[in-house]
Amino acid sequence: MAELDRRFCTAPMMDWTDRHCRWFWRQLTRHAVLYTEMVTTGALIHADPTRFLRFRAEESPVALQLGGSDPQDLAHCARLAEQWGYDEVNLNVGCPSDRVQNGMIGAVLMGHAQRVRDAVAAMRQDVDLPVTVKHRIGIDDLDSYEFLADFVGTVAAGGCSTFIVHARKAHLQGLSPKENRDVPPLMPERVYQLKRDFPHLEIIINGGIQRADVAGHLQQVDGVMLGRAAWNQPLILADVDQRIYQDQTHPEPSALEAAERMVPYIEQELAAGERLHHVLKPLFNLFHHCPGARQYRRHLSEQAHRPDAGIEVFLDALSHVRRAPQRAPVAQAS
């Protein structure tokens, strides 16, 4: 399997980065590595994996993020990921919610580095896919750089060579998951230091990154991962192939061109029984700052949830922006 180029990635986000979102984002960038929502090992083992794992080959490169801590369960799910054609398996060691903590999932695992090491080793033993870890810079009072470096060194001994680091610590008590994405201060210097101290590892930075930040981060680490910025303003992905990957064969699409590329997919999904508002959810912010965007969003908000809503709802919404400038203004990279 070809080595993944993770210079630019989109983050795994619960209830957001489903297969419809990934298909849409793939219309904007061919090269960025896209990550699924977190899927727990229990869901894959005890339910029909088709519900969670189905995706189209055209979405690739795409990584499956797993939530779990039992090495054998994770190895089983990694085998499923390989069978379904995913390009990478990523272990969630960053989610701070109470619900996942109770299942020994997410950021709580930063306090159990040996368990993460063993889980990585079990997955690496069973699959040829890259096995990566996404984590915070610390948890609660375990927030020193020495703790972070020890965690990375321990997990690397299990065979992990790629670490995606959210440059905030997580508070396991007292803050909601949403607050944990904003309240703890960003400390990118610690992620930069990891790269200096572990030059043989691939270090990718995540957390509060905007389009204008990308170039600066790439001078310090191997890759960047954007989450909410890409969701709130999808068109920032449109020049990733040219700007990050120097691929001039993929012209930057306008917002309207990206929307029109989605029409056949939307029609196919509706014919298969999918609801319109589910398919259109990632396109809601596509025309960010464009004239007509408010009317576009209002039309979708009012009409797309109807049980009988069809493709005409989307086409009618597009009528509000067809005469507007096609490319939304976005902040220029430094």
TrEMBL record:
Can the keyword Kinase be found in this entry's annotation?
Answer: no
Question: According to its UniProt record, which residues of this chain constitute the active site?
Answer: 95
Residues at which FMN binds: 12-14, 65, 134, 166, 206-208, 227-228
Q: Which InterPro entries match?
A: Aldolase_TIM, DUS-like_FMN-bd, DUS_fam, DusA, tRNA_hU_synthase_CS
Record EC number: 1.3.1.91
Pfam families for the chain = Dus
For this chain, the family text in UniProt reads: Belongs to the Dus family. DusA subfamily.
What is the official name of this protein in its record? tRNA-dihydrouridine(20/20a) synthase
Q: Source species, please?
A: Natronospirillum operosum
User: Which gene holds the coding sequence for this protein?
Assistant: dusA
